[in-house]
Amino acid sequence: MAELASLKLENKPWPGGTHSLHYHYLALSEPGPSLPEFLAVGYVDDQPFIRYDSRTGRAELRAAWMAPVDTQYWETETQKQKAWEKVQQVEMWTVMGYHNQSSGTHTAQRMFGCEVQEDGSSSSFWQFGFDGQDHLSLDVETLSWVSAEPVAVRTKRWWETERCYAEYDKAYLEGLCLTSLHRYLELGSQSLTRKEPPMVHITKHMTQDGTTLRCWALGFYPQDISLNWWLDGEELTLETEHVETRPSGDGTYQTWVAVQVPAGKEAWYSCHVRHPGLNHTLTVAWESPSNSGLIAMAISTVLITIMLIAVTVIWSKRCLQAWNKKSYVQTPAPGAGFQKEEQYYKQLC
């Protein structure tokens, strides 16, 4: 831990824009035939670059730009994830005991990472969840654990007796995490610092409340983007509905903004788009169907793709529910699991 705390960020300029390094860990109590007992995925700017699967028992690359990394890196990552696998399994069963649950399909999630903004400022987060709900988070500034549910107070009290846990996480998030992010950006500079401008289209939707215009931005990179609706030279801040920018699944991003308009006044509104891949503010207005057949076809294709992704996600959740077995599994006594966890966690500290 002391080595992590002494690490300093290399004195090199950061690439423009916002960049992040996040890790997502998932443990399953009853994984089933096609799901791992433990899965860890690392992301740089929301792009997966490393993956550990308990079924293979080794860390593997998920981005071509990681190919030059030597074998020692992968061996170190494999051993680190094996240790986290043991930690998270014990945590999951202990929290199940706190909830008086001894069987069935349950999950424990850990998410943590750091982010650097365009102005050079940085931030970080550390969260632990159970069955898809927040359980515990770390306040990095005060080195205190914040419980998100009554049961989590028991976890919080135990972790507070081992200050090493919080100190390790803080040292990593403010030191090695930022250093690693910088190095990954250097390795993947051609891919991670590229600029792909958005494809912008407007669709019209009839609802019970009237007419809605939706401005789509698709296939852009990086994720920093600004979309706004304008009318008569004024930005419609309060009237505009925004959604969070989401990964498209192909290494790019997508988002949209919507506004309600009076029937027959669609042409009065325009969508203004700013993005690092554009050398100017792009202004797009609604086109009548007679002039936008190809656009409608493109949007329909995108919407169908999004629907297929949604169906896949729903199917996956139903599969998890189907694997909810009725067999009895002995529940660890409260606190007993953490005694084992301490042995594994100290490997990390």
UniProtKB/TrEMBL annotation:
| Segments traversing the membrane | 294-316
Kindly provide the name given to this protein in its UniProt entry: Receptor for activated C kinase 1
Some GO term, biological process aspect, for this entry: which one? immune response
Is Membrane a UniProt keyword of this protein?
yes
As for what it does, the entry says: Involved in the presentation of foreign antigens to the immune system.
Which terms are listed as keywords in the entry? Glycoprotein, Immunity, Membrane, MHC I, Transmembrane, Transmembrane helix
Subcellular location, in the record's words?
A: Membrane
What topology does the record note for this protein and the membrane?
Answer: Single-pass type I membrane protein
Q: Which residues form a coiled coil?
A: none
**Could you state one GO cellular component term attached to this entry?**
phagocytic vesicle membrane
Q: Which gene encodes it?
A: RACK1
The Ig-like domain covers 198-285
Q: Which family does it belong to?
A: Belongs to the MHC class I family.
PANTHER family reported for this sequence: IG-LIKE DOMAIN-CONTAINING PROTEIN, MHC CLASS I-RELATED
Instruction: Name the source organism.
Output: Oryctolagus cuniculus (Rabbit)
